[in-house]
Design goal:
By secondary structure, the protein is α+β, with helices and mostly antiparallel strands. The chain contains 13 helices and 23 strands. α8 packs parallel to α9 and α9 runs parallel beside α10. It is globular and about 70 Å long.
Length: about 450
């Protein structure tokens, strides 16, 4: 049985009111589990019939679904490896719904690892605009990058930078900014009861201070007329309504956006919503703010790579693999080839660890393509694809790193599951030499 500190229960009473008994009665229920479908790779109509488990629509996000309690190791499913969906607690998807992404938007996800919300944002952008995902903790930024590659995000940037530094560099650049701040995690207590031991009034207070300082930075990156969404996975008044009220007091150029439609609990702020297990999620709070003024973007000069006469050779080598290359500018940095998004600003010292697609490497004049290039591609863009059904034994063998029999002509070949690319290999003499990265292989 989960047991909560008395002080915590006293605080919850202020939030839940008469529903506190219902919340406490549900404390030992199985946590809600969910997935978000990645439209860069598929869509719900195509994906859901292929899943070997039942799903049910979540009210919190247009492409969010619950899946049943008893599914283990969903991350080992081939369609997960292929980036068709992201495993995400259902209420965590609500903040991106408030962002209301439109095609062509520029979006900053300031506290982005491991990448659930970035993956939703990229899915909504559908390969247009620009998503910039930042994570201050270096090793978490690497996990974010790995999820970026799995989800096939091409018009994106991953950085690891302090919010105050990054948002100064990118002042006024974004249509939409998400600050999904680190918090005391009260909404995760059913999933991870051990975290309850870390709860204290002092911890809540220090989280609130850090959240305000993150928001003080985040707001600089929002253009005039742009949107700032703040979210946490905690119930605490101090970390949620308290932070927003203090932020609006400090930043009079921002105002709350009234939420006319939402699927959570009302809060005392008309611009914010809270989701609890009673509404069908583990716990999330999100507030939507707008920077006053006309919609204008402070235009940053686009990054232009230095002229490099090897680019046309690389393009020629790429055209042996691709019918249509992913769009963007080919750039060669220390023999590594990238396809840079059109809207990538020319910014220095922003901790960028990836801009656009890592396409491959030049080795002794030869181009060796990278896993990330294939993951960001569609079968129709490639010259050669080995497409397999999800239950085909060869899919498992491929994900384990084995060579496959393959009667296709010699050359680089994408491996796809149910029409979704999951990696690549090199065909020769009736075999597909496996290039699935060692760190991702099924064991
Ligand atoms: N948005 C992520 C997602 O959907 O997958 C989850 C983000 S998590 C709630 C908050 C993130 O903020 C963590 O990855 C944490 O490392 C990062 N963080 C910790 N301290 C920070 C700080 N001072 N400034 C900015 N981010 C911080």
């Amino acid at each position: 049985m989960i047991s909560f500190p008395d002080e915590f229960i006293a605080e919850l009473k202020g939030i839940f009111g008469d529903d506190i008994t219902e919340y406490l009665n549900r404390a030992d229920d199985e946590p809600f589990k969910g997935i978000s479908v990645n439209r860069l790779k598929t869509d719900p109509e195509r994906l859901i019939p292929l899943l070997p488990f039942e799903v049910r629509k979540s009210p919190f996000y247009k492409d969010g679904y619950y899946y049943s309690d008893d599914i283990q190791s969903i991350g080992r499913h081939p369609l997960h490896h292929a980036g068709a969906f992201y495993v995400q607690e259902p209420s965590a998807s609500s903040a991106v719904s408030l962002l209301d992404i439109h095609k062509g938007d520029t979006v900053l996800d300031l506290c982005a690892a491991p990448g659930g919300k970035s993956s939703q944002i990229a899915s909504c952008l559908g390969g247009t605009g620009l998503i910039w995902s930042n994570e201050v903790v270096k090793n978490r930024a690497q996990i974010l990058l790995s999820n970026y590659e799995r989800m096939g995000i091409s018009k994106g940037v991953v950085s690891s930078c302090y919010p105050e530094v990054l948002c100064d560099r990118l002042e006024g650049f974004f249509d939409k900014v998400l600050a999904d701040a680190p918090c005391s995690g009260e909404g995760m207590f059913r999933k991870n009861p051990d975290a309850i031991a870390e709860w204290s009034r002092e911890h809540v207070r220090s989280c609130a201070e850090r959240q305000l300082s993150i928001l003080d930075s985040a707001c600089k990156a929002v253009k005039e007329g742009g949107v700032l969404v703040y979210s946490t996975c905690t119930f605490s008044y101090e970390e949620n309504e308290g932070v927003i009220k203090e932020f609006l007091r400090r930043h009079q150029d921002f105002e709350g956006c009234e939420l006319t439609e939402h699927t959570g609990r009302q809060t005392e702020l008309s611009c914010a919503v809270r989701i609890t297990p009673i509404e069908g999620g583990e716990g999330h709070f999100a507030a939507k703010l707008r920077r006053k003024g006309e919609c204008t973007r402070s235009v940053k000069p686009a990054l232009r790579s230095k002229p490099d006469n090897r680019v046309s050779d690389v393009r020629k080598m790429l055209s042996e693999i691709f019918i249509k290359l992913p769009d963007g500018e080919l750039s060669i940095i220390n023999d590594k080839v990238f396809i840079i998004p059109e809207l990538m600003p020319d910014i220095k010292n922003a901790g960028v660890i990836r801009a656009g697609i890592y396409a491959g490497e030049l080795k002794k004049g030869r181009f060796e393509p990278a896993h990330a290039l294939f993951m960001a591609s569609h079968p129709s863009e490639l010259r050669q694809v080995l497409d397999m059904k999800a239950d085909d034994e060869r899919v498992k063998a491929f994900l384990q790193g084995h060579e496959l029999e393959c009667s296709l002509p010699s050359g680089y070949t994408a491996a796809a599951v149910e029409g979704i690319i999951t990696g690549f290999g090199k065909c020769s003499g009736g075999r597909l030499k496996n290039k699935y990265p060692k760190g991702l292989r099924l064991i």
